[in-house]
Amino acid sequence: MSLSPTHFDGESLITPELLAQHGPLAIEMGRTSDDPVTDILATLSIFEVLFQNRSDTAHVLTEMVVYINRERKRLGHGTWKAISPILRQHSICAILHQDPFTDWSFRKPRGYSGDAHLLDYIYLHPNVEKSVSGASALGQRLYAYSKDVSSSVAVRERRDLLAKLVDETAAQVGPETEILTLAAGHLREAEKSEAFRDGGIKRWVALDQDPFSVAVINQQFGGTAVEPLDGSVKGYLADAYELGQFDLVYAAGLYDYLPRAVAIKLTRKCLQSLKPGGTFLFANFAEDMIDDAFRETFMNWELLLRSEADMWDIINMSVDRNKVQADVYTGENGVVIYGKIQLRV
Ligand SMILES: C[S@@+](CC[C@H](N)C(=O)[O-])C[C@H]1O[C@@H](n2cnc3c(N)ncnc32)[C@H](O)[C@@H]1O
Known about the structure:
Strand content: 5-15%
Oligomer: single chain
Helix content: 40-55%
Structural class: alpha/beta
Shape: globular
Number of domains: 2
CATH topology of the largest domain: Rossmann fold
CATH superfamily of the largest domain: Vaccinia Virus protein VP39
Number of strands: 7
Bound molecules: S-adenosylmethionine
Largest sheet: 7 strands, mixed
């Protein structure tokens, strides 16, 4: 059933700033203007009223996510990018940002998109429990949706698949296993790895450019096989850290920010860091994510989505396929794609 905007009161439309920027909006029920921005702002006002008046928040948000996605498709990405700053000034944002996950993403307290604390909202980690329980009732209902949207489910699965890959590597290689995680964030997959828990890993280098995240890793895993490294992809590419060779190198939540040329350069470098028979894995969000336009617009979180062909392109440009075994596959709901390259022994 589609939600009909029966509660629209024609008053809670836009902010004074928007009016100043965009001129007065002639919005009436059942009437559309010639200006797509005006129409979208009017529709956002309808959603705003629905959020305020209905308790089925997840239903309203689902409708809104689908609507935003459809409108971006209709107008094209370039136009959408241009109008996004206007949409972000709509008073509906005060509602959407009651969700602590959306709010953190939008505010970017660490100064960049997609930091490890943000991912903790997806992982339902105790680290964010206080912020979730302190949110308004509406904010908690919004979070109940956003934590279980398909991309969040796929990221939790990604963490579990990484832990499984670590365990499989340790089972094959034995106690000498050495692992390198690029853009490690809080290294939450270590909490899920049985091999790590059982002392089956010799060295696990966790590199990240965010000193706050490196400090979190240090606090949780200091004195174990994990070696937190405050470092950047740039430094890694420039051989700044003398890391040695690894049985497994992987990157999740990194390639989504890398343009093609850097992705290829980094893949080549990661392959050079492998011991014979070693494995490199990189993950990327897939195209056609249903919540992509919503995330980009109202969470201010842009990602570089890739197709399976894009993943193969990175692999083919990085290595002679005769020298490796390579595979590209998706997780269960298709939202995250994986590229896996294993060197022959
Ligand atoms: C989306 S989080 C992913 C964290 C973790 N891999 C996970 O899957 O939960 C992205 C991480 O990449 C790190 N990062 C981004 N660009 C980086 C760079 N150029 N060098 C090193 N780390 C980087 C950020 O600091 C952040 O911790």
